[in-house]
Amino acid sequence: MQINRNFLDLKDSYLFATVGRKTAEYKKAHPEKDVIRLSIGDVTRPLAPAVVEAMHRAVDEMSRRETFKGYGPDQTCYGYEALLSSIAGSYARKGVTLDFGEIFISDGAKSDCGNILDLFSSENVVLLPDPVYPAYADANVMAGRKIIYADANEANGFLPMPNERVKADIIYICSPNNPTGAAYTREQLKVWVDYAKAQDAVLLYDAAYEYFVTDSSLARSIYEVEGAKDCAIEICSYSKTAGFTGVRCGYTIVPKALVRGGESLNRLWARRQSTKFNGVSYVTQIGAAAVFSAEGERQISENIAYYRENAKIIGDTLDRLGIWYTGGKNSPYIWLKCPSGMSSWEFFDYLLENANVVGTPGSGFGKNGEGFFRLTAFGTEENTREACRRISELLQK
Ligand code: PLP
Fold first, then answer.
1. What is the atom index within ligand 1 of the atom nearest the CA of 42?
2. pLDDT tens digits, one per residue of 193-229
3. Is the CB of residue 281 below 6 angstroms from any atom belonging to ligand 1?
4. Helix 344-355 and helix 381-396: axis angle, to 10°?
């Protein structure tokens, strides 16, 4: 037998391991120091009460013979109507009409960012931004696909635009972006949609952070852009929207209008899911359905407002220090230019040793991340304020 040797082409992911190791070593050497982590990409606020109540009710239903549920409904790839209808309702509020058959419930965005590739030949060329969320690159390396990069940098505000002379078949866009926090306007996304159509390519649009968008010029869904249903698949998550990182639920939209190679990608995806997936638990789906209820939306908005305030505290600090950054306004991520020409890892060490604050070196997300640094708004307000006070004190000197 032969193993999939493409795995041997994967780069070892040293980034978070090295951040963890360096932080642990520093804490061991300086146990008296209070180290604050502004590197966390996980949420810290608990589930909204409306979600918890819905999940309790669903558990009770599972405990009674009359209301017990086994496998989910197979005609909708195991999505329960309550959840499909709440997702369709949330799209309708963005002006997007979806058929229930276009909504596929998943266990989160990360899995589908990779799983969706089952639909495409490994001969296809993939276009990723650099810097990038590493899972997109790794999933394509595993499949042996050729990857090309669109340069995101200070000059384009970390929002690269397509180059018509470059041929690509599969294009990943994440907006608001991890790691850079930068977010495309509707007009910019229209250019990507037109490019994808001209290339007969498919856009894979990761909307994991759409709930952080406040500016009305920015899209929360690629389908707010005219023509996107012919070329884009949208991958969404309850993780950052509603604190579901440990619960696990998301949804992927594959429009019925999306046809490539004469085949409906919606039909192929339904076929793929019914073969390789058996759905998300009933309890989880009922909890997720409560997220977009009136009460649920009000409650999750409070949590998001909390993170947004943290992002503002960080952004205001950098503004006062005159440090260039993207993100923070429509995103929980702040992507800053390391001061005094430091490299990403030099700044990491400098901040850890002198302010006892941990962030994530940008170079870990791609070559264009060198000289940049990611801070996140997912900590507590108290820690965020204290970290910013220390950063100000250190960098003002
Ligand atoms: N997509 C992006 C851009 C992310 O940053 C993350 C998590 O950090 C995910 C997807 C993963 O989402 P999920 O928890 O739904 O798998």
1. 8
2. 999 999 999 999 999 999 999 999 999 999 999 999 9
3. no
4. 100
